[in-house]
Amino acid sequence: MKTFDQLSVIGLREWINLPELGIIGLRAKIDTGASTSSLHASDIQPFQRDGEDWVRFTAYLGTQVQRRHRCEAPLVSVKRIKSSNGQAQSRYVIRTHLALGDLLWPVEFTLACRKTMRYRVLLGSKALITGQLVVNPALSYVQEKPSLSSALPGAQ
After folding, report:
1. Considering Cα of 132, then 116, then 118, then 138, what sign does the dihedral take?
2. Which tens digits make up the pLDDT trace of 32-87?
3. 12 domain-assigned
4. Whose CB has fewer CB within 10 Å in the chain, the N or C terminal residue?
5. DSSP H helical segments within 2-123, as ranges?
């Protein structure tokens, strides 16, 4: 059996932060069958800032108590995604830093309505590859919750 010492182990569910969006303490479901990660969003509005494409949206925190958080991020692209129920739809794609445990790296997220889903975030295989993570599906919440100060380089 091969082992990979340089890879961090995560469980099927983990706590994450999205510090550039001001989102802290979000439960994420790991989905190795999805290529791109997905973030629950509504009220999605594309706009221009200094000649660049951006998107403004409402993110939702928590599952029992819904807290809304208004976010803005540069728009990376618009992708045609086939959802788990087989329907294709166009989704806005953003890139933002993700904090999981003591790691921090940029991840692309599609913005999608996930209000009927238990988890507001899915982490897809591209995020796992870039973060050099392996999944043990028998475990959950292996990594410590990212600290409130999981800041970006140069931030306090």
Report:
1. negative
2. 999 999 999 999 999 999 999 999 999 987 655 567 889 999 999 998 887 667 78
3. yes
4. N
5. none
Average pLDDT over all residues of the chain = 87
Residue 69 within a domain = yes
User: Which structure tokens are listed for 22?
Assistant: 């001001």
Residue 129 in tokens: 């590859």
**CATH number of 60's domain:** 2.40.70.10
**Calpha distance 68→73 (Å, rounded):** 16
Round to whole Å and give the CA distance between 102 and 40.
24
Please state, in angstroms and rounded to a whole number, the distance separating the CA atoms of residues 31 and 119: 11
20: its two tokens = 């550039």
Q: Which residue has the tokens 């999944």?
A: 135
Domain that holds residue 122: 8-135
